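Aim 2 progress update. The chain analyzed this quarter is reproduced below.
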Amino acid sequence: MWDAVGIDGPEEATYEALVRRGQADPSDLAGDTGLARGQVARILGRLAERGLATRLPGRPSRYAAVAPDAVATALIAEREHDLLRLRSHAQRLAAEHARRGSERKDPADLVEIIDGGANVQAAFMRMQRSARHEIRSFDRPPYLENPVSGNPEQYRQAEQRGLTYRVLYHQSALEIPGRMDDVWRRIQHGERARVSSHVPMKMVLADDQLALIPVTNGGQAAEAAYLVHPSSMLDAFSELFDALWDHAVPLNRIGVAEERPAVDPQLLGLLASGATDETIARTLGWSVRTVHRHVHRMMAEVGAETRFQAGMEAVRHGWV
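Predicted structure tokens:
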């Protein structure tokens, strides 16, 4: 526990043993901690230097523990001071980095190659941590990891930072068992989600500063990616995202003014996304006949003549 403020394992054990005794000499604490007496004597000296213990007068050497709450308060304040210094230093470095970035002349500096699946994932995590306003992404299979696992902590941190997510899902991404429920959970955490049959690649945009794009877009999960820095190429990717986003079908579970028909909300979302009856059946665990029955009932309720019209009516009324 004390390692959070720079107190290592042997020091922590010695200090807490001293706290329990109130006062003690190295021999007492050696028996309590299982450490050698000489090691305990050296640790007590360091604890005294850091303000966790007080050496008492007389021989042999004895020490008294400083109250843990006072110790914790002082050490936390010290650590906070160090962290603030680090933040200031990092901000100065970031300003220099941005200044040098604006001076880039060599086109090769504008695109990095990230090699290896673990490195691609690490680059993605760094982008999320560095983004200040918005993460935009194209989401489509295949995936390096299970896409249904979810990361609620990621969204809690995003909410605290005021960071928003806009994700455009390829309709095949919603065919993965359990994925639709995962997307609904993300929406509940503030994600804005849309679905389209035209998502040409996987891509992540962090603000207008970086884009991460897999090198391959075929049937295998990418083991390498391009990291694109501010440039005309990055501007083009940003405009591509916004253009496809504007023509995609929104997914949400926000309350609506009009009464929604008694139809499964996941069915509404899948229908609006253009999913086939077979895909809907696999996703919801229904038979194709059951899907037909629900879809035809919905078409009748909204007065639609085709599945596409029914899906668009669901979007227009705000049911998905």
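The two ends are 47 Å apart (CA to CA). The domain at 107-251 is CATH 3.30.870.10 (Endonuclease; Chain A). These observations will guide the mutagenesis experiments scheduled for the next reporting period.
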